[in-house]
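Why does residue order matter? Because the sequence determines the fold. Keep that principle in mind as you read this record.
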Amino acid sequence: MNRRSFLQTGILAGTGLSLITPETVFGNDYAVAAGKRVGVIGLDTSHSEVFTKMINAGGADMRGYQVVAAYPHGSKDIASALKMKPNIIKAVQEQGVEIVDSIEDLLQKVDVVLLESNDGRPHLEQALPVFKAGKRVFIDKPIAPSLEATRAIFRAAEQYNTPLFTSSALRFDANVQKVVGGSIGTVTGADVYTPAEIDKNHLDLAWYAIHGIEMLYTVMGTGCKSVARTYTDGTDMVVGVWDGDRIGTVRAIRKGASSIAGTAFGEKGIAPLGPFSTYEPLVKEIVTFFETGQPPVSPKETIEIFTFINAAQESRRLGGKAIKLS
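Structure:
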């Protein structure tokens, strides 16, 4: 008798047949309540492994959700993603997750989706069948390679009336959330620093620096009016001017020591942001989103973040000229 059969038999014997309802769905090795089966698209990023382990470990914060199936394919040509893919497939399988041959097959087995493909380029194509199926979906960073592709994803989600959530884990950093909660009063400015490796297929700051930019936006809010970027091979300095003449900066690091952290300035004090410590707060937010269908980050804010990144790209092209956001 395999483990699944043993568990099913044990449940029937130990709790009584009356407790097994049509709403109970048996996952790979466990019973998963209907509506709580999680599918993963893309096993070419460490996030797929980490998020699966956190969700499948259970606990009150996971609310009974379990990752039960995964479609492994994401990037077709990003070397770092392709290199890690075999090990992540193995690690996810060891968590009891079934590997499937297509997104269509995945959608027959799950209720909600983690779209984790490391490469932002296939996200729209991969998300469309999820939207059409009406299944709530978290799309990992970068949501798309460009501003227009980001807008296209949100348009499609709206067309099919499917809830969509996307965010960096840095948004939910404990120090960041203290500032959001008013620990230093109204935020008058912020400086962040972040690793900023560039991928040729994505806007420069969308590929990795988006973590720092998301942290900046979390404390500054929307309303950036202009962006100027000074570019060198090893470092960018990006300066945004927000409404109320508030200034937010991003030091994007490609050479030397780096981390994701910063400082927020407020009417009542000065506070640290970061450094990154854990994905747990993000995973809790994802599970809450799966449960409620209410994303904690608005499409408006994500689109402005990509407008900021796009303006920074244009500023680099023009030698550091300030670009107005429109």
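The chain has two domains: 35-165, 170-324.
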